TrEMBL record:
This is Flavin-nucleotide-binding protein. SUPFAM superfamilies: CYTH-like phosphatases, FMN-binding split barrel. Transmembrane segments: none annotated.
Length: 354
C-alpha cells in the first residue's frame, strides 16, 4: 500500500497540439480504469470501511501488466488530493464486479517525469461516446509552479476547479456493455502486445459492440475445437450473457473430449449473408470470438440453462427462472453445458445490400 498527496492540473488540447506532444513523448502506457461504487469484496477496503474505489489496469509496450486499486479524496485547495493505492492480481470475483461498471480506456503518453510528471491521455472509443466529450487531455502533476510548464508546452491556463471535476476520469467514464476482458484486450492490441493481430481490412472491421451484438442475436454459431491433430467445427445453439457463451450438449462426445485437452476455442456467427452474383462477391456481417472453454457445474449451470430456454423457448422461461442452488433438476442431470469465456472478438462486414 502507498499513500500520497497529489497536486495536479488538467488541460484540453487540440489534435494538432496532441500530435506534437506525442512526437516528443518518452514512452506510453495502455490504461483502463473502472469506478466501483462497492469495493467491499477487497479485504483492505473492509478494514477501512471504504466503498468507492478505482481499479486500474496498465500495460506497457513490452507487455508488462499491473493492476492497482486506488482510493482518492475529493479535490482540495491548491489542486491537492490524497490517494491510497494497493497492487492486486485479477481473479474471477474482480472480473465479475467490473461488468457494467463505469469505465474509461486510454493510451497515456509520458512527456516528462521529473521534476514534473506531464502526460497526454488519448481516450479510446468504446461502443458509445463518453459522458464528457473529450479525446485528448494533458495532466501536470508537480510541487512547482504550474506556470513554468504551461508556458514551456504552450498549454494555456488549464481547467479551473469546476471544470477539473467535470473532466475527471470518473465523470468521463461510461457504463459499457463491452465485457472488461475485451476492453483490456483492445488496449493490449493498441499497445502491440496482444497475440491477436489487428484486422487488415479496416474498412470492413466492425466495432466490438457490434460484434457482440451479432453474437448475442445469432440463431446458431459454429464452435471450433482442436483434438491435437485436426480442428473440429460443429454448428450449435447457444446463449450469450456478459462476455460468456453458453452451449448445451450431450454428456459426452468429441466436443467435450477436445475441450478437456485443449480448452482454447473459437466461435463464429454469421448474422447476414447475401450473394451478389453481378459483383462476384457476397454481402455479409459476421463475428468470431476466441476464448477458454470449460464444462460447467453448480449454480451457474442453472443460469446457463435459463438463458438458453429464454432464447429458444421463451414461453417456458418462467419455469426455469428460479435458481435453487441446493436442488439439481432433470435438465441439469441430463445436459452438459459448455462455458466459453470470451477473451477476444472481432467483427467484419461487407455492407452492399441490394
Amino acid at each position: 500500500m502507498s499513500e500520497s498527496i497529489e497536486r495536479e492540473k488538467k488541460y484540453l488540447v487540440s489534435e494538432e497540439k496532441a500530435q506534437k506532444l506525442k512526437a516528443i513523448s518518452k514512452w506510453k502506457l495502455g490504461v483502463v480504469q473502472w469506478y466501483l461504487q462497492d469495493c467491499s469484496f477487497f479485504d483492505f477496503a473492509k478494514d477501512k470501511n471504504i466503498k468507492n474505489c478505482r481499479v486500474r489496469y496498465m500495460v506497457d509496450e513490452t507487455g508488462n501488466e499491473k493492476w492497482i486499486v486506488a482510493f482518492k479524496s475529493e479535490l482540495m485547495e491548491g489542486f491537492k488530493r490524497i490517494e491510497e493505492e494497493y497492487e492486486i492480481r485479477p481473479n474471477e470475483a474482480l472480473w465479475n464486479n467490473l461488468i457494467r461498471t463505469p469505465v474509461a480506456a486510454k493510451v497515456r503518453y509520458f512527456i516528462s517525469e521529473k521534476p514534473a510528471e506531464i502526460v497526454l491521455d488519448e481516450f479510446v472509443e468504446l461502443e458509445k461516446p463518453y459522458n464528457v466529450s473529450v479525446k485528448y487531455l494533458v495532466e501536470i502533476e508537480t510541487h512547482e509552479d504550474f506556470e513554468i510548464y504551461e508556458k514551456e508546452y504552450e498549454l494555456g491556463n488549464g481547467l479551473n476547479y469546476e471544470e477539473f471535476d467535470r473532466y475527471t476520469n470518473k465523470n468521463i467514464a461510461i457504463v459499457s456493455s463491452i465485457p472488461p476482458r475485451l476492453i483490456v484486450e483492445k488496449i493490449r492490441q493498441i499497445m502491440g502486445v496482444s497475440s491477436f493481430k489487428m484486422m487488415r481490412r479496416k474498412d470492413r472491421e466492425l466495432p466490438i459492440g457490434k460484434a457482440l451484438e451479432i453474437i448475442e442475436k445469432g440463431e446458431y454459431g459454429v464452435l471450433s475445437t482442436f483434438d491435437g491433430e485436426y480442428p473440429y467445427g460443429v454448428p450449435v445453439n447457444y446463449a450469450y450473457k456478459d462476455g460468456i457463451i453458453y452451449i448445451h450438449c450431450a454428456l459426452d462426445g468429441k466436443k467435450l473430449e477436445n475441450i478437456s485437452k485443449h480448452p482454447k476455442v473459437s466461435f463464429s456467427v454469421i448474422a447476414k449473408s447475401k450473394v451478389l452474383p453481378e459483383k462476384l462477391t457476397t454481402a455479409y456481417e459476421s463475428a468470431i470470438a476466441f476464448g477458454s472453454a470449460e464444462l460447467l457445474e453448480g449454480p451457474e449451470k442453472k443460469v446457463a440453462i435459463f438463458e438458453l430456454v429464454k432464447k429458444y423457448s421463451p414461453q417456458f422461461a418462467k419455469k426455469y427462472s428460479h435458481i435453487d442452488e441446493t436442488e439439481e433438476n432433470e435438465e441439469c442431470k441430463n445436459t452438459a453445458i459448455i462455458k466459453i469465456t470470451i477473451e477476444y472478438i472481432s467483427g467484419k462486414s461487407r455492407a452492399e445490400w441490394v
